[in-house]
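Sequence only, no structure available. Ideas?
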Amino acid sequence: MTKTSRYFIKTSFLCFGLGMMSGIWQYGHYVYDWTAPDTLIMAHTHIIFIGGVMNMIIGVATWFFPRSKKGYRFYNPRFMWLLYWILTFATLGRFGVEIAAGYEPHQALLKTGFWASILQVSALAGIFFQLWDRVTTKGSHIREALGETF
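Reply:
I predicted one. Tokens follow.
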């Protein structure tokens, strides 16, 4: 398992933990009238899906799928590492901004959340582009050509 894979997977565990805690906070808000921001649902959903699920998928994909051929011009481990950090900071930043903006909806906070979202989408697009060549068939296309069905 590569260092990058481990970081993506461990980050997903941390984000799942944040999501679980914000889910308890959300439930406490409805059951016990705990104070909660209006944006808690959005923050909770976001940290679970992007922070937890997407990081887990990316971590497993970088671990599970074979490396590209040596010299492949599109995959760059250092660029992938940079994209990991951009995605992590943008996700955690957006989570924090969504919580803060729910208490005090300043335009600057909302704009920061928007640009964090743009960073996330950009980082995810870069990651998908980096991983695209690693998702290859290992003989199934040959078996399909011979008439085998799955």
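The chain has five helices and no strands.
Hope that gets you unstuck.
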